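Re: your question about ParB family chromosome partitioning protein

S., sorry for the slow reply, the queue was backed up all week. Below is exactly what I fed in.
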Amino acid sequence: MKGKRNALGRGLGALLEDSTIEKSTPKASVDKEVSTSINSILEVELSKIKPNPYQPRTQFSKESLEELADSIKVQGIIQPVTLRKINDSEYHIISGERRVRASELAGLEAVPAYIREATEQQMLELALIENIQREDLNAIEIAISYQRLIAECGLKLEELGDRVGKKRSTVNNYLRLLKLPPEIQVALREKKISMGHARAIINIDKIDLQLTIFKKIITEDLSVRKVEQLVREIMSGVQKQPSAKQMDPEREYHMQRLQKKLSSHFGTKVNIKADSNNKGEIKIPFLSSEDFNRIMELLNLEL
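Result:
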């Protein structure tokens, strides 16, 4: 009875080529003499399996590996790993490094594997695409994988989107993250900030302003919505006040907040201008004599 085909995603499935294997093949029935044959399912000793040198994934959750190892002890390996034969005593992992690591933790000596031929570029592309499709990969690892597929595999943005099953805009949003300062990229990798935070920050062109916003996120535990609002306020202020470019980023931010509070207090659009020497002006416009009197009352002044 034939087993169901493994759904590995459009890009990975096309590269690996769909194959069917016999379900519940007894370990004793595996012909050890054909263990080096290509395009076959067989048992390969873990001591002969080496990591993919092009593996883009840099972090494996210890807890997750232990959970998978416990499952393997009970259920065994449900889906064979995919290997590339280097020589009679060495194989490189194309896909399934997490399963190999968990199998070692579970105390297995060998794992079922599909042996296939692959060029070095295919090794890279297969490893990148498989990892991109995993849910536990952080945003920076995904972005780096996209960048490598473009730079090292020669894929165009449209082709990349088709391979990984993502819209071009989604792929581009990840690639933009690599333009952020290293400090922010590390925080995103370590999940101190979310993808939403990073996408809001990247809309600011100035690195010093990006870092100022990032520090506020960390110290004040700002939500994504609050960061998006903060970015809109800063961008609006920069566009309306060219002289603000000369200000310190934190001072610029506080100036925009003050301008907003004064506008709310007086019920009219207050404009603050200041230069690097702390000289400037505050403009409070009024539309009529009644409006003028209203503002004077708010100032607690009498004519």
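Residues 1-36, 239-245 have pLDDT under 50 and may be disordered. The domain at 10-118 is CATH 3.90.1530.30 (Conserved hypothetical protein from pyrococcus furiosus pfu- 392566-001, ParB domain).

Happy to talk it through on Thursday.
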